[in-house]
Amino acid sequence: MEAASPTFRPTFQQAFGHGLYLGALSAVASVTTGVIATMVWPGPASPPAWSWAVLVLAPLMLGVALGIMSGRRTGVEVGSREIRTSSLLGEGEVPWNRVVDLRAERRGRRNVVSVYLDSGASVQLTAPYSGGLFAADPQFELKVFALSHLWRSHRFGGLPG
Question: What pLDDT score does 28 carry?
Fold first, then answer.
């Protein structure tokens, strides 16, 4: 891809919120495991109080750190010939000549960008997106407009490439 390609990534707030969500799930699993272990192996001395704080805070902080780091690896890069998506699970490329429509849609509790291909398949882009609380992106509409403009320019002419 060329150096001037627009790139769309989750905002810091979105990456933080995703990490907080994963960390909270991990903390619940950690505390549940600690409670079950305490009930199964009862002993004369109960675990110290600080161990419960570690069971909550360690997975929570680890989840936040991983969420922020993964947010930097997830995104969409728009080039002169294709849209390239990247996430922790893999990467994908969609050439502009296969894209027949690009629009914002409501999926669950989020607004996302979907790309419709000439084969009838649709691809949901990993960014930009917007939702509630931590998933909100105040510039979502501007990003969708920029993507739409780039798609129309490639589809109907106007940009070299």
Answer: 93
**119 contacts: CB under 8 Å, gap ≥ 6:** 98
- Contact yes or no for 10/139 (Cβ under 8 A): no
Indicate yes or no: pTM above 0.85: no
Q: Which two three-digit tokens encode residue 53?
A: 């704080």
Task: Scan for tokens 């407009």, then name that residue.
Answer: 145
Q: How far is CA 29 from the centre of its chain?
A: 22
Q: What is the DSSP string of 34-95?
A: HHHHHHHS--SSPPPHHHHHHHHHHHHHHHHHHHHHHHHH-EEEE-SSEEEEEETTEEEEEE
Low-confidence ranges of the chain (pLDDT < 50): 1-2
Order of all β-strands in the sheet with 122-130: 99-107, 110-117, 122-130
